Amino acid sequence: MDGQQLFFLIAALVIAVMILVWALVGRSGGAGAGHHDAGHGHDDHGHGHDTHDHGHAAVEAPPAIVPTLGGASDPVAVPLSTADIDAQIAAQAAEAQASGKPRIAAAVGEPDDLRKIKGIGPKLNTLLGELGVARYDQIAAWTPADVAEIDPYLGTFKGRVDRDGWIEQAGFLARGDIAGFEAKFGKL
């Protein structure tokens, strides 16, 4: 795509967005808003100023939708402040820790030897097994939220998932790409 085509594409998108905004906001004032009826164009002082609203109503922000881990499937619309959200996240984390197990996807299949991942020794391997972590593919699929979920359970090993690159290492091992693993992380 050359520069001229890109310019016309951006211009078309800007015009489309402007039309959409006009359709949603400019016309939301309802019938009668924004135009004059005969004989009603003057205020009580005779200055000729229009007393109509012109469709410029205040628009309120929609309430926040806050999904909860393990909660109902339908999110509840509740206006929340940042402090409320932080408190809710902290409460969910405390609840998960009180249960003794992180809320992450369970391992499916025979356990792998997680000690092949650089940074996981015998003690950490045992701890991960107790937490329900037993497979390379399980670790390879972790999202940042999963890492944040499991990290508090690692005790003195906290931060090792990111620092040692477990997810990337587990990805190589889950795919059976030993050559790729060894090229990046050294011999197994």
Please, could you describe this protein's structure?
Helix content is 45%, strand content 2%. It is flat and about 65 Å long. Helix 7 (166-175) runs antiparallel to helix 8. The protein is built from 8 helices and 2 strands. The chain has helices spanning 3-26, 82-98, 122-130, 136-140, 144-150, 160-163, 166-175, 178-185, and strands at 65-66, 76-77. It has 188 residues and is mainly alpha-helical. The longest helix is centred in the N-terminal third of the chain and has 24 residues, at 3-26. The chain starts with a helix and ends with a helix. Strands 1-2 form a two-stranded antiparallel sheet.
Q: Element order, helices and strands?
A: HEEHHHHHHH
Give the biggest sheet: 2 strands, antiparallel
Work out the helicity level: 40-55%
Structural class: mainly alpha
Rg value: 29 Å
Any key phrases for this structure?
single chain, 188 residues, mainly alpha, two-stranded antiparallel ribbon, 8 helices, 2 strands, 45% helix
Question: Short description, anyone?
Answer:
The chain is mostly helical and 188 residues long. It has helices spanning 3-26, 82-98, 122-130, 136-140, 144-150, 160-163, 166-175, 178-185; strands at 65-66, 76-77.
